[in-house]
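Quality-control log, excerpt.
Job 1 of 2 completed; input and output follow.
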Amino acid sequence: MDMQVVILAGGQGTKMYPLVESTTPKSMMPIANRPMLSYQLEMLEQCGVQSSDVIVVVNETGSAEVRKYMTSVHPGAIKEPTIVETPDDWPSGAALEKAAPHITRDFIVVPCDSIMDPALLHPMADLHRIHDGSLTMLLKPLPASALSKQNWAAQDFIGIHESPGKPTRVVSMRPATQVNDHLSLRKSLLRQYPSVTIHNTLLDAHLYIFSHWVLRTLPELKQPKTVKGSLVQHLLKCQLSSKCTTTS
């Protein structure tokens, strides 16, 4: 695989307290007697990703524990990735900006708290290259049991444009918590993409492939900078603007 991979492993897991102690990074929380991080590393190893192409972003508090696991415990081939440290309270977009100097080509952003089928990665990368996308994202259908008021905060209203002979395009994404009685779309969006279907049964898996050029937009994003809430939203808006630069 000719892309770099950024694993966002800096979360403190505050929502999982007391399962995660204040000094233990969420990425090191065990699942089936293995740290979360080990599943992402195993997925990348099965896809043929080299250690030199992996960047792991960790917070300062959990850095030592992650480094020790990588070099002394993890049984796989990825043992010496680039480690980027950030302050404990940095959001994901700011963490990605800190890692930017180490990124030299198109890259994949992988969350530390999702376990995914390795078979997904190569088709996503192929799709990104074929269509020369700025952003390729993984969306998963939500089961009916997940569509409840209890899970409302995790749902999104996602606008999808489909046209014969062209790739499926995400043209809007709005968290359910920001939608009251109705959902509005810009006229400029509908003029450019007249056939839009709004879905609220798709889950954003937080697995993204970005073109290298998008790193230049990170300093322009408003605080707090997050990958989904800031960078992805910025790129969606770029589809409607001639001012966005898409060349490396």
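Job 2 of 2 completed; input and output follow.
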Amino acid sequence: MPAVASVPKDLYLCTSLKDLNKKTEIKPEKTSTKSYVQSALKIFKAAEECRLDRDEEKAYVLYMKYVTVYNLINKRPDFKQQQDYFHSLLGPSNIKKAIEEAERLSESLKLRYEEAEVRKKLEEKERQEELQLKKQEAKEDTKVSAKTSLETSLDSKGKNQMTNGEKKGSAEKKDPPETGGITAEKLFTMMTDKNIKLMVMDARSLKDYQESCIINSVSVPEEAISPGVTANWIEAKLPDASKEPWKERGQVNYIVLLDWFSSVKDLQLGTPLRSLKDALFKVRRVQAYVFLILSDQ
């Protein structure tokens, strides 16, 4: 007796029971009833072998074909005249077994096809998510690369602007601040010089600004600043009292940025003052920028 396979073979003929049923169709032929009987016996034997081999799809197709051929034989005139004879050839229990096995396989295959469809959808979903993740990572890498390039360009432009500002100040015999930072004493001198238009932007929290601030300074609270933002984005987040002075930033000679403790060396990417400086440099309408006050000089 042939050994029975331990697990069903993978699905390979179709993706649904509906499609598989199309393979069970048999067209009537002009042949003898005996030939039909011989074909039926061969089909049943092949179906049994496939069942033992756990090839459920092929076994189902063959059992269904056997049932179809059996029904064709039953309709022939000579079968009705010699029923006992043909039944003995076909086997009294074969048709019953074929129907039972076909029904059993039908239920099994229906579940397997449904499971395969679910797996396929899940795999496709995972594939799409992985593809989307790769696209997002590539996009982020591009943004980081572009931002790094932009930062390099802005720093270079900023240095040129500072140099130009210093030269202009020398020509007018003014005492401009050192590039990148000034002391509180120099800031006071500039604020009292009527020939210098200056704006002080206070990047501390709004609460700290309200408790103490430099006279006529503009509050640009750290809550309104984040890496990569634009000047327009910051403007939308400003306190009402700061919005009108903010719009005048393009009319001044110098903009001084300050917080509690930062110095020039602290202007790292991601810090509020660095983000504010970058946002200002995106709109090149002032002659020079002084980044912050160095209180310890």
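Post-run check on job 2. The chain is about 60% helix and 5% strand.
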